[in-house]
Amino acid sequence: MKRRQQVAQSTELGERGAWCFTLELVVEPELVLVFWELYEAAFGGLRTRSMARQVLTEEEFGAQMVNPDVRKYVAWTADGDPVGMCVVTTDLTTVPWISAEYFAARYPEHWERRAIWYITFLLAHPTQRHSRFLDHIVDVGVGELVEEGAICAYDMCAYNDAELGLSRRVAESFRRTTGAVSVPSDVQSYYTVDFSSPAAPEAADPTPASPAAARLGNEVVQIGPADAAAQRTMGTV
After folding, report:
1. Tally of CB atoms within 10 A around 105
2. Kind plus residue range of the DSSP H or E element containing 29
3. Beta-bridge mates of residue 154
4. Residue 66 pLDDT more than 90?
5. What percent of the chain has pLDDT over 70?
6. 65, 125, 174, 229: which could join 83 in a potential S-S bond, CB 3.0 to 4.6 Å?
7. Do 39 and 72 touch, CB atoms closer than 8 A?
8. Which DSSP symbol is given to 199?
9. Pairing between strand 10-16 and 82-89?
10. Is the sign of the CA dihedral 17, 20, 24, 27 positive or negative?
């Protein structure tokens, strides 16, 4: 499916490496489905890997695709197939899982001039997951932010962070392409209590480095981290 046949409001951003890049503001319905399939290929597996919801519903995804305040930077192959996307916005109300007040309080000067951007998601088709592609799509997606001296924030689940090392790779791409340093801003952990398998009292270890123990009546149950550092928000200037 060729991009010039499907995209109504599109700005060509030129070629980088083997890919062509465009900026999409309002995406046509036919192409929303194509982008949704790309999104599913990249993010679908996170539904069962993180306690926090990491995947937009199809309705939520579609709303972002037609919202002109949400900027979609898209990577295309020479054949016209979309293979990557960086979605950013200054309208933090479109990102329901974050606190806009957090950013307003910590970055009042940036907030006043609407220079706080949030990366809603950054994705690549599984066939494109290598450093050169990541460098190019990061460079395209944050170029405007660098020019205006903005704050850029994003979040990542524990699986992408610890298992895949994606936070390190993204931070390295920011450093290589912009010279900016990405720093951890907040961490949230998720816990479970298993009442079906109470632990023996002597096995309980309430120290901070181990799963905590809680006493309910005469039983001790283990309270263990279900998704440590499940949602890590990062910021870069």
Report:
1. 10
2. helix 29-43
3. 234
4. yes
5. 73
6. 125
7. no
8. B
9. unpaired
10. negative
pLDDT in tens, 3-22: 444 455 789 999 988 899 99
- What amino acid is encoded at 37 in this protein? E
Nearest of 181, 166, 173 to residue 140 by alpha carbon: 173
Q: Which residue has the tokens 């398998």?
A: 197
Residue 38 near residue 124 (C-beta atoms within 8 A): no
How is the chain split among helix, strand and coil, in percent rounded to 5? Answer: 40, 35, 30
pLDDT per position as a tens digit, 125-134 = 878 866 688 8
Residue length of the chain: 237
DSSP per-residue codes, 139-156: HHHHHHHHHTT-EEEEEE
Q: Give the bridge partners for 21, in sequence order.
A: 75
Residue 10 CB coordination number (10 Å) = 19
Neighbours of 196 (CB within 10 A): 5
What average pLDDT does the chain have?
Answer: 78
In this structure, what token pair is assigned to residue 204? 């309980």
